Each structure stands twice: as structure tokens, then as C-alpha cells.
Amino acid sequence: MRDVAIVAFAQTDxxxxxxxxxxxxxxxxxxxxxxGATSLKASDIGFTCSGSSDYxxxxxxxxxxxxxxxxxxxxxxxxxxxxxxxxxxxxxWVKLQTGEADTxxxxxxxxxxxxxxxxxxTRQLDPYYVGPLWxxxxxxxxxxxxxxIDAGHTDEAALAAIADRSRAAAADNPHAQLSGxxxxxxxLVQPLRTGDCPPxxxxxxxxxxxxxxxxxxxxxxxAWIRGIDHRxxxxxxxxxxxxxxPSTRLAAERAGAFEGPVDTVELHxxxxxxxxxxxxxxxLDAGVSVNPSGGALAANPVMAAGLIRLGExxxxxxxxxxxxxxxxxxxxxxxxxxxxxxxxxxxxxA
Amino acid sequence: MPDVLSAPLVVEFPFTRxxxxxxxxxxxxxxxxxxxxxxxxxxxxxxxxxxxxxxxAEELRELTEVAATGTVTTWAWNPAPRRDQPLATPFxxxxxxxxxxxxxLLHVLDAPGPGAVHTGMRVRIRWSPERTGAxxxxxxxxxxxxxxxxxxxxxxxxxxxxTGVVTPARLDYTYTPGRAQSxxxxxxxxxxxxxxxxxxxxxxxxxxxxxxxxxxxxxxxxVEVGPRGTVTTYCIVNIKAKNLDIEVPYVYAHIALDxxxxxxxxxxxGIPYDQVRMGxxxxxxxxxxxxxxxxxxxxxxxxxxxxxxxxxx
Lengths: 350, 313
Ligand SMILES: [Zn+2]
Description:
The complex is a heterodimer of chains A (350) and B (313).
Chain A: E1 4-11, H1 23-38, E2 47-51, H2 54-57, H3 62-66, E3 78-81, H4 85-97, E4 103-111, H5 117-120, H6 137-150, H7 156-169, E5 187-189, E6 192-193, E7 202-211, H8 212-218, E8 223-232, H9 246-254, E9 264-266, H10 272-282, E10 289-290, H11 305-318, E11 324-331, E12 337-344
Parallel strand pairs in A: 2-3, 2-4, 9-10, 9-11
Antiparallel strand pairs in A: 1-7, 1-8, 4-7, 5-6, 8-12, 11-12
Helix pairs in contact in A: 4-11, 6-10, 7-10
Chain B: E1 7-18, H1 21-31, E2 35-39, E3 45-46, E4 63-66, E5 69-78, E6 91-98, E7 105-109, E8 122-127, E9 138-143, E10 164-175, H2 179-189, E11 193-197, E12 204-205, E13 221-225, E14 229-237, E15 250-257, E16 264-268, E17 281-285, E18 295-298, H3 306-309
Residues 198, 200-201, 203, 212, 214-215 of chain B line the site of zinc ion (ZN).
């Protein structure tokens, strides 16, 4: 295996609306930031991969228009996933493993403000048995939350404490959409209150991956990807045990997460109840720092929020605030699909 | 705040999907007020039934009937139903394990309030009066205190089976095209064409998309182009498009407006179709309330030299 690291990360401020910005307008500043941080030009990049969904803003082929911001003409080596950017990062990591590229630009954006994201996300569900009922993302998360409460793994007060801790942490995150003291609010779908749910908004993020000595040349403390894996649950909700996440556990195991302690964890848990599931699946100690960025409860640009978890963990390593971090991304209803990466900083040389 | 246009946008399509044998039997069964499950090799009955085992990926075909009564395994109270959801009044989302089934089915429960719902409560199907072979043939579940339903064997065969479903999908947006395209559309309403110049390579893009795809930087400087331009290439359309009142054959062309570094496209009129040529000089013709030129017609100028527009092909 080649050593591959995250060498740069940037994210936009996440906002409820960005009417004056097209997707490419939203994206360009973060692309320029990661290129600037590594002194790379777009033409130096070996592979480019993005994650987004045109359904969010109802703008057909927005992912091809977003490529304008990369400088994709004359044609570059490029790919796109209709998934969170964390999976675009996975594809780029595989590309670097093949040796066909030494650097990769990965970006993701989500512009939820033009539509109704709760309705939009129903369109990713089983179109025969589930989609015609239009169960929205909050409703499905609420079914999972009630299952956790029934099983005695949490209660509404514990969920509210997760929300409070996340938004308090986000006070130090200048990009967060929701931070500080946020009321628990009314039930959106009981047992989840507005405070248990992520803010809806627009945002984008970008990272640069590099292999081996290229990474060392581009960054003083690269965040080395020691392992990365993604796994999926059965697609029918009624087949799954919604209180557990075996796919997260398996991905973590395959990524080597249990081979040593981690000091920082970035979990992609858009709903408070999902943090409970993930903590149980990963067997996290109470002492480990979870979502120091505030997590998806502070900013949840759909399609970018998972990539941001990897970026936030990497940024902490680059700043010397973490030596070994676990980053997680999710996709689909009730933590359907999960990606886990283990990131490490190199020990300081004596 | 820059002056940005916005407009309602509806994206709507009826998805037509064919059904596999197990899905067909299940949905046809609902039409006949019969709920079918499928048995896995280890004896578990999956409801709703799937065609492949979610654990072993083995093909599943052994159908069996389950009861229309069952037990709630988890629930969530929805105080504000959304447009396309099964009930218009507040309801509970539920996962229900039907009697005889080993897995739970997602649907909704009609109940007076969240206080009337709990995990473990007994419910039964309320059938929709009009059934077509769809998951919505189950109108909803309702609380039920009666007997535990007794499932009976079923071979899954029905007269006139459902072989496909049409699922309409509608999503509503408030579309905002962003700064560059707002400016372009506003200028068009004044019968002007405005592009944007790349600060790096100086190319002028029409219509502008906000960024230069070669340089990857934002374009901002607005440049009025045209109104005249040059046909760079064209085709002759011989097939009449639906809902388009234009006599065929006609010419559709790429037109490089004077001052633009990218050709846009439009119809050529005012000249017999077989006399249109590369290099022809044209100008826009605006009609009525049109937001775009209706077509372009010859200006009568001499044709442009190939060298002038060859980079714009
Ligand atoms: Zn340029």
C-alpha cells in the first residue's frame, strides 16, 4: 500500500441561504484555498473527484458546471459520485493506490436552500415499498431514536445533552451554521426535537490528497490515512437492528481503528440519536474528544458534511492537536452506509 | 445583496418501474388484500419480501402469506404531515412486524395522538378502498385489540398480476440561478446579450456561468456582445419537434456573437435553409414577449473569413 495523506482542507462558512451564489460560486473559494495552501496549480493535480447531488438544488448537471471552478478544460482526469464527498475521497485514495496519480483534489458541495431537503432525500429510498410513502429524513431518524429509547440506550435528556455539547463546541468553529446555546425546541417528529436535528443549509468543502514524499513536500504534518473502509447495511429498514451499526464497526475494524487508541473522533451524525448508535458501534471511551468541530449538528451541508469530518480530523493532526484520529461519514437513511478512516500524524523526529 | 433572480421550479416525473417476480406477487397481493412474505433458507419470513437474501444474497422465491395484524416495533409521531405522505392528519410512522413475519414493514398508523401509540402495541391494516397493486393499497395501520392473525400458505399466484408500478415524484424548488446568470437573463429582457470576461485568459463567455472553465477562476467583468454574429457551424433539422410550431426543414446553428469567445445556438430564418453556410453574418430577431431572440437572420454583410471564427468552432 502507498502512504497517502490529506495535506490540505478548506470549507465554506455554512449558511441557511446563498441565493446569490451558483454551485460553482460556492465552491471556488475552497478550491482556491486548498490549492493555495499547497502551492499547487489545478494543472498539477493528478486526479479530481467530487461528490454532490443535483436533486438538492434541482439544478440538472450542476456537477458538470461545478467543474468550471476547477479549470477542467482542456480535459482533466476526473470523476464524480452521487454521494457524500467522503466517498469521492475514497475513490481518489484508490486512484492514488494504483499509482496513476500522486495528488488528488476532492471536493463536495450541497445547496439545500432552494428545495425541501426532507422531501428530496425520500427519493433515495426503495422506490417500490418505501418511496411512495414519502418518509422524510427526520421521520426515519425519529424511528431509530425511538428504538434506542425503547432499548434503554438513551433518553430525550441525553439526546439534548449531545446537541448542547455539539453546539457549544461549534462556538470555536467559525464555519458553523448553528453554535452556542440552541433551544431544544418543539418536536419535529417525536422523539426528535428541532435541536436534535441538523441545520439545513448550503456549503462546500475541498481536500487535497498526496502520496508519500509528495505529501511531505506539500505539508509540514500530513494527516496520513492509515486505513479507510466503507460498508453498508441491508436496504430494508425493517430488516435492520436500528440501535446498532454493524457496518460502522466492520468498516472501523478494516480501517484498523481498534489497533490503537484514538484521541479525536469526528462522527458524521446528523441527528443526536445517531451519535448514540455510532458511539456504541465503535465502543468509544467517554474520555475521547468527539466532534470538537461541532459535527453535523452544527453544519450539515448535505453531500459535504462527511468529507468535512475527514477534513476536520486531518486539520487537527496538521495543527498538532491530534496524533491519531478516527473520521466517519454516513450516507442514506438511519446510518445506512458508513465510511471510517484512521488518520495519523508522524511522530516528531528526535 | 446583489440583485438575484428567483423563480418557482417544479421537477416532476412519473417513474415507471418493472417488478421482479417477488415484488410483483407482493404488490398484486396487496391489491387482493393479501400480504405475502418470502421465506429465507433459515426459515425467516421477510415482509416486505425481497428477491435476494439480505445476508446471503441467495435468490428467494418461496412465498408465504402473513396476517394483516401485527405489532409495532418502533414509532415516531409526525405532528405535521407533508404533502405526499399517506395521511393528511397527524399520524405515527411505524415499523410493524406482521403476525407470521420475521421483519418489520414501514408504514403509518392512524392514531389520535402520540399518547395513544407505543412500541409493542397491536395494530392491523386498514385497506385503501381503491387498490392498484402498490404499497399505498395499505391506507395505513389502525389500533387493533382483536385476535392474533393466523397466516395461511399461499403460492403467490393471482389472476392478472401487476408487472410494473408508476410512481409519480414531484419536488418543488425556489430556483436562483446565481449572480452571473441573473445578469445575463436581465440583459436579455432588455434585448441585450451580456457575457463575462475571464480576468486571466480574457475570454468572454456567453452565456456566463460565473467561472472560466480553463482557468478555474471567477469571471466578473460584464461585456456586452453582439448583437450581430457569425454562423460557425449548423445543421438542417428535418424532423418536426413536438409542440414546436416551426416548419421543417430549418437550420439550427452555432452563432459566435461579435465579441464573444464561445458560440451560442439559435435558429436561422429569413433565408432558404439550403443557402445557410459557415461564415454567414446574422443578427437576432426579437418577437413579442420572447425572452430570447426568436431566431437569427442574415445581415446582408459579406461572409466572415474562416480564420476569424475557426477558434470558435
Ligand atoms: Zn480564463
